[in-house]
Amino acid sequence: MTSQPSVLQAVFDHIDAHADEAVKTLRTLLRQPSVSAQNIGLETCARTLQDLMRAAGVEDAQPLPTDGGPEVILGTEAGASPDVKTLLCYGHYDVQPPEPLELWHSDPWGAEVRDGVIYARGATDNKSGCLAFVEAAKAYRAVAGATPVRLKYLFEGEEEIGSPHLEDFVWKHRDRLQCDASIGLDGGVNRTSLRPEVHLGIKAILYIELRCKTLSQDTWSGRAQMLRSAPWRLIECLTSIADPATGVIKVNDWYDGLVLPDEWDEEFLRDELQHFDRQEFMRQMGAENLSTDDDFELLKRAHYGASANICGLTSGYAGEGSKTIVPAQATVKMDFRCPPGLEPAEQFRKLQAHLEQHGFDDIELLLINARKNPYKVSSREDIAQATFRAAQRVFGTAPVVHGVSIQGLIMLAIPHPAVLSGFGAAENNLHGPNENMPIARYIQGIKYAAAIYHEYALATTPGYST
């Protein structure tokens, strides 16, 4: 089986010729709310995605139930011949809540186009990524009759809340989902170099809530000197967990087992450092300072370091004017990013022990989610090399490679190398107001998916050549 250079170019040409159709399909999906955190619109969105996939030629696209969660959409592409490898295409159709709504310049579910940019929740994360896989396969079928590798689609509806039902689903359907490698397209390009990013691993997430209640009800602040304040007590607890100045987690044995970057990882970091623009990054983030003045250490922390982050803190009165009270209770939500070697369930037990040992038994600790299996894949894997080459081919530049988001759970049931990349704009406002996807970037993303199929076939199929 052979493939001439003109075949992939013909696929690219087909994608360009049908760009308006692809954009229309994406806007249809974006107009359907699908907020997993609030259980809004998930069933309808799953059926919308199924219909769009079938209309694109994925005849067996099918929503399958999970045990208590939203449906997972599965589908397949047979590939050009029986001896080709199988690539699992992972994505998620659920999105973050759009709030605060007042900061959006248009309806977050309107998929409005302004100056060639689509604005909608899910435009980058991750509805465009799901459909890029499907549109690339559609183009391949139109040009060559079939995709050069066998494809299996898995699009879930709970990624934004930690995929609590995905592991069980994959175990139940592992025979159907067997693959040689997997790829996800979820996110944007590097914020300062504008080069595509390729992630060869994932940090797992531990998400918790701390609750402190010191009084039966809010009371007059004239008695503050007599009472224990819930917010101050919670702040005391938080500063025992992590150093706010350095970010170092102070829980005993927290870093035990952490997998440190190897020589390949450090080489990737040095390459990224050459293109890192500190001032531009700070401008984009609206930041006055960063966690260290050492740019190499900064990138190392970002890609390989553990973190303790406060997502939200609630207590007392925060309305207009003044209200002189001692708040009765305080609550904080936190996420801990756990690199390879730090399993979230074990880190949660360490946190429990920390609270007990430091006398914080008056503070309630709740486990919201412990997303399993932080992982790391070798840069020498076929799927990694194929993604590097596809990025170079489509974007005209080598990607930024990070040695270390949900394929880790799939790998528990189906061991395989997994890679994550993306194609959104640098300032895509992922998870924020006015999330967006430039149309030109979306078309480029479809070509990226097609090039990954092509390059993976080159790496794995005897007789397939340029």
Automatic annotation (TrEMBL):
<dbReference type="Pfam" id="PF07687">
    <property type="entry name" value="M20_dimer"/>
</dbReference>
<feature type="domain" description="Peptidase M20 dimerisation">
    <location>
        <begin position="305"/>
        <end position="359"/>
    </location>
</feature>
<dbReference type="GO" id="GO:0046872">
    <property type="term" value="F:metal ion binding"/>
</dbReference>
<dbReference type="Pfam" id="PF01546">
    <property type="entry name" value="Peptidase_M20"/>
</dbReference>
<keyword id="KW-0378">Hydrolase</keyword>
<dbReference type="GO" id="GO:0008233">
    <property type="term" value="F:peptidase activity"/>
</dbReference>
<dbReference type="InterPro" id="IPR051458">
    <property type="entry name" value="Cyt/Met_Dipeptidase"/>
</dbReference>
<dbReference type="InterPro" id="IPR011650">
    <property type="entry name" value="Peptidase_M20_dimer"/>
</dbReference>
<keyword id="KW-0479">Metal-binding</keyword>
<keyword id="KW-0645">Protease</keyword>
<protein>
    <submittedName>
        <fullName>M20/M25/M40 family metallo-hydrolase</fullName>
    </submittedName>
</protein>
<dbReference type="GO" id="GO:0006508">
    <property type="term" value="P:proteolysis"/>
</dbReference>
<dbReference type="InterPro" id="IPR002933">
    <property type="entry name" value="Peptidase_M20"/>
</dbReference>
